[in-house]
Amino acid sequence: MLRIVALSVWFSLATAALADTVYVRPPGTPADAQPTPYEDVNVTGVTDGQITFVTIGGTTISKDMTTVTGLMLNDEPLFNDAQTDLQANRPERAVDKLQQTIEKTDKPWLKDYCQPILLQAANQAGRFDISSRTYVDLLVKGADVADKDRPTVPANGSNYLDDAATAVAGAADTPNLPRPQLRQILSFLLEIDLARQDQNGIDSVKQRLVDAGGNPSDPTTAGALADAKLADARDALDKNQFDQAIALIDASRSAFTDPARQSDALFIQAQAKGGLAQAANDANAWRDAAIAYMRVVADFKDTPGAPHVADSLFATAGILEKLNQPDKAREIYLSITHDYPNAPASAQAADAVRRLGGSAGAN
Questions:
Q1: Which residues contact 320 (CB under 8 A, 6 or more apart)?
Q2: How many domains does the chain contain in total?
Q3: pLDDT, position 101
Q4: Per mean pLDDT, which range of 6-20, 142-156, 273-287, 343-357 is the poorest?
Q5: Residue at which a domain ends, from 74, 95, 121
């Protein structure tokens, strides 16, 4: 009788342990197809990209982790709750639970499994403090992080920026860090320092990027360096160093390879030429500035979002008023209200039309 009781207890304990579920979608299966659940199994670990689990019948099964769409683990309630939150599109709730799972679980493989999920959840939840640390932690470990999962750096003034800069700088100082990962971390740090407007940090990281082999053929590095060059030009513009702003853009023209940065560069130059014209109060200088603004319009009016186009048109109209051409100025102001009604410049353009004796609703 004692042996029967003992076997009964053992069986109940074994059954309780075999309560994990692994959801698998085989290669080639449509993304919207329901995954296959392996229920009442015991996950024993993840090695070399393969998850291994044992069925209630004692069969050991291994599956490539790229085919695993989800897990539910018997002894990891926080992890399970996080999975439920993610399924319900509640990433802000999942973030803390995933963090606690990483901190508390005694399964090294689960820590590694959670980190990419935490990165995605933190990105969705706008938790840059967590996504920035997780991103660089993965890079330090040598993980292949997709470009789409690189955290979006918030604007200047965010409470997350300073702590993120400290964490990312610490990751960049990891001994013996391979150069590809170092370049990715430094380019991310440069983006953070640009948002913080930390000129000393920008200068230091730019030099470290170059020393780490940063070059224009590496899109991540090239983009970070291009942003730094734009920041230098904006800094010169803010200091009324108009010739220097123009020269900085001219010297770095080849670095601006995408429409967003190209429009930024041309708009900075146009603003600098406008500053020179204002200082000289010369008609020819004003015409040069107007031409520079209209180049932005010509090059980017058909680009999605029309970057800086409405502002360039508004600046051009203002110059035409200075050149005593109010009718042409009014035409441009009207075009802004008609073609870019949602742009911030539209309301100012409507006021200018009324000031010049017309109606903002006229054709």
A1: 290, 326, 328, 329, 332
A2: 2
A3: 96
A4: 6-20
A5: 74
Provide the pLDDT confidence category of residue 116 given band limits of 50, 70 and 90: very high
Domain endpoint, select from 48, 74, 100? 74
Average pLDDT over residues 24-44: 89
Asked whether residue 18 is domain-assigned, the answer is yes
How many Å apart are CA 253 and CA 21, to the nearest integer?
55
What pLDDT score does 229 carry? Answer: 85
User: Residue 321 pLDDT more than 50?
Assistant: yes
Give me the pLDDT at residue 219, please.
64
pTM to 2 decimal places = 0.64
Q: Residue 319 contacts by C-beta under 8 Å, 6 or more apart in sequence?
A: 274, 277, 286, 287, 289, 290, 293
- Residues 221-243 have a mean pLDDT of 86
To which residue do tokens 């069986």 refer?
A: 11
Q: Name which of 56-70, 195-209, 293-307 the model is least confident about.
A: 195-209
CATH number at residue 61: 2.30.30
Classify residue 271: in a domain, yes or no. Answer: yes
Name the residue range of residue 337's domain: 245-363
